[in-house]
User: What shape does this take?
Amino acid sequence: MTNTTVTDHNTDIQEHKALASWMGVLFLLMMFLVAVGGFVRLSGSGLSIPDWPVVNGSLLPPFSEAGWDAVYDDFIEDQHRWQRMNQAQTAGLGSRGNMPQNRDEFKIMFIIEWSHRAVAAMLGLVALACCVIALKNPESRKRVKPFVISIVLLIVFQAVLGGILVKTGTSTQWLFLHLGTATIILGLIVWSLLRLLLPDGIVATQEHKPIRKLLIISMGVLFFQIILGALVAGSRHEGFYVDWPTMGGQLIPSMWESHRPLSWNLLSNPELHQFIHRWFAWFVVAVMVFVFIRAKRSNVPERATFSLHLGLGLLLVQVVLGFCNVLMGVPTIVGLAHLLVAMLIIVTQLMALFDLRYVQDAVAEKAEMEANDAISA
Assistant: This one.
C-alpha cells in the first residue's frame, strides 16, 4: 500500500469518526426539537405565526414595535377566520390553540413557535451536512447511505407537513402525522449512529431471529401508542377526563358518535382517543414484558439485555407519568416528560434490535482474551 493510499485511508477513517459525532449531535437536536414541538402544542402556541415559512416577509421575529403590531394584527385576523370556520363546523378539532389575553402574552407564544421553526431549520442543516459527508466518505457511504438520505427526505417532508399544520390550524388529523414522522426520523438517526460506531469486521447475523421479530412487533406497538398519544394531545382542549379508571364516572363511556362520519370518529373523537390510549398502554406493557422474558430465556447478548432492562425501567417511569397526566390534567412539564420518555423507550428497543442484528459481545470477549494473553506473555 502506497503512502498516498494510506493517507487517504486515514483521512476516510477520521471523517467517518467525525460523522459519528455529528450524528450524535443530530440525535440530541432531534430530541430537543420533539420537546420544543411538544411545548408548542401544550402551550397552544402553534398558530401564533399564521404565515409559513416567512413571518411578515422575514425569517426573523420582529425587532420593532411596529413589527410586533403587524404580526399581532395578522394573528387576530387569522383567529377571527378560525372562529368563523368553527361556527360553520368546517375547521378541524383543536384548530385554534390558545388565545392570548394581551400582546405581551402573544409575544411569548410567538417566540415559542418561532423557536420550534428555528430548531427545525438547524436540524435540517445539520442533517444535510451529515448526508453530504456520508456520501463523500467511502466507509460511511457503505454503512449509512440509505439511512441518511431517508433522514433528509423525511425532514423535508416534515417541514412541508409543518406548513400544512399552520394552514389547517394544527388540527388533530395532521398532528399525529407530524409526531409519527418525527419518531421515524429519530429511529433512522439512532440506527445510523449505531452503524457508524459498529467495529470493523462485524456483519449481520442470523442468530436470535425470533427475538428480533418480537422486538419489531414491540416497536410497532409502541409507535401506535405514540400516534394515539398525539391524537389525545390534539383533542385534549376539547375535554380531558381527569378520573381513572373511569372516564366521566363511567368505566366504558359512550365513545362513538353515530351521527358523525367514520373519519371524524377515528381522527377527531376525543373520548375515543383517550379511552384507547389509556387501555392500549397496558397492552404495550404486556408486550414489552413478554419480549423481555423471552429474551432472557434465549440468553441474548449482554448489550441487548441492558437495552431491554433500560426500556423496562423507562416504561415504569412512563406509566407513572401517564397517571400523573390523567389525574393532574396534563401539566406542561409532565406532558413533555411523557413525550420524551416515549421517544427514549423506542430508542432502547431499537438499540436491542441492533445488538441482536450485529452481535458484538463475542468480539469484545475475544479482544479482551487476546489482551490478557498479551499481558501474560
User: Anything to note?
Assistant: The chain has two domains: 1-197, 204-377. The chain has eleven helices and no strands. The first helix runs from residue 3 to 43.
